Amino acid sequence: MERIDQAQARAWLATAVAEARAGLAEGGIPIGAALYGADGTLLGSGRNRRVQDDDASVHAETAAFRAAGRRRSYRGTTMVTTLSPCWYCSGLVRQFGISRVVVGEAATFHGGHDWLAEHGVEIVLLDDSECVAMMRDFIKDQPALWNEDIGE
Fold first, then answer.
1. How many Å separate Cα 14 from the centre of its chain?
2. pLDDT value of residue 148
3. 145 φ, ψ to 5°?
4. What integer pLDDT is reported at residue 20 of this predicted model?
5. pLDDT at 129
6. Is the dihedral of CA 96, 98, 99, 102 positive or negative?
7. SS3 state of residue 152
8. Annotated catalytic, 118?
9. Active-site residue among 19, 26, 61, 105?
10. Mean pLDDT, consecutive 10-residue segments, the chain of 152 residues?
11. What is the torsional sign of CA 143, 136, 49, 115?
């Protein structure tokens, strides 16, 4: 698989950021994700909908994965997420062999991306200031909801 350049990674991150902003506007947790095919085609996108759907399993990455539909293989695909993936979402990446994860930021939450890298998943950490600001504002404004989301 060819390495992704920063411009492409940031372009794909814009899809995830739009999902995160939509989730925030709905009263949810502002985390967005998108799954891209090896050819650069958007396969699916989604946002954390734990609050909106009253379903703890609807994280942004799982929503994007579900929106992509059934595939024989996920090799060569890229999961783009505004926030470092939690263990649940990291497990999804490993289970289905997603090859790369583009992470908007890991300053507010350091999930399982190091573990994924140790197991051969290419990690592109962008340290995106917009993603950091969105999460910092949310955590400040909604600490109880944030702690619920991360299991604290």
1. 12
2. 87
3. -65, -40
4. 98
5. 97
6. negative
7. coil
8. no
9. 61
10. 88 98 97 97 98 96 97 96 97 98 97 96 97 97 91 79
11. negative
